[in-house]
Amino acid sequence: MAEKTQRIGIFDSGLGGTTVLKEMIKSLPNEDYIYYGDNGNFPYGSGKAKNELQKLTERILDFFVKNNCKLVIVACNTASTAAIDYLREKFSLPIIGIVEAGVKIASKNTKNKNIAVISTKFTAESHGYKNKAKMLDSELNVKEIACIEFAQMIESGWDTFDNRKELLNKYLSEIPKNTDTLVLGCTHYPLIRKDIEKNTKIKNRLFVK
């Protein structure tokens, strides 16, 4: 009997995680992937408690295990913040969180240790990035900004919203002037990267997951 192919599982609350999937396919084109977009429970980033997010993501991990996944990437910053430790306690397969990866790359990119993170309400209020950054380097300064409407607007069709530029200006104006590295702390945000670049005053560098 032929051995079952082991796959890499990637999940998000919607289409945002496809930005991670695309990069993975570029890096590891010979792997088999399963993408799970939990549209039925979208959005993760507002209106859900930590324990609810843990249970939702646990069901997704069960699905990946049943489908012979050897590795899971939590391609959602909110889910990574709320559930990564919980999932690692429950499951034996390797689980990679997007927040940890983002902090590591941002810390390598920054020249002055001043980082800003735009994210969902849950990720910002849970201080997922700030806590991970301090564990990595106590001198890192992290400003977390909740862009409450962005994920839902992107999921529904960003260009159809007339107030998108107004909201971009509102949230990006909160970035401190001494910031040299911006983290897009939601995997939906790379889908509007061009608009973010046009409206940010950070000239040195822009980090996108």
What does this structure look like?
This protein has helices at 18-27, 50-66, 77-90, 98-109, 121-125, 128-136, 150-157, 164-172, 193-199; strands at 7-12, 32-37, 69-74, 95-97, 114-119, 141-146, 181-185. The chain is an alpha/beta fold. Helix 1 links the parallel strand 1 (7-12) and strand 2 (32-37).
The total number of structural domains is 2
CATH architecture of the largest domain: 3-Layer(aba) Sandwich
Specify the helix fraction band: 40-55%
**Strand arrangement, major sheet:** 2-1-3-4
Number of helices: 9
The CATH topology of the largest domain: Rossmann fold
CATH class of the largest domain: Alpha Beta
Spatial shape: globular
User: Which structural class do you get from the secondary structure elements?
Assistant: alpha/beta
Averaged pLDDT: 92
Radius of gyration: 17 Å
- Largest sheet entry: 4 strands, parallel
Question: Tags for this entry?
Answer:
Rossmann fold; three-stranded parallel beta sheet; 44% helix; globular
Give a brief outline of the structure:
With 209 residues, the protein is an alpha/beta fold. It contains nine helices and seven strands, in the order βαβαβαβαβααβααβα.
Secondary structure: elements and pairs:
Blueprint: E1 7-12, H1 18-27, E2 32-37, H2 50-66, E3 69-74, H3 77-90, E4 95-97, H4 98-109, E5 114-119, H5 121-125, H6 128-136, E6 141-146, H7 150-157, H8 164-172, E7 181-185, H9 193-199
Parallel strand pairs: 1-2, 1-3, 3-4, 5-6, 5-7
Helix pairs in contact: 2-3, 4-6
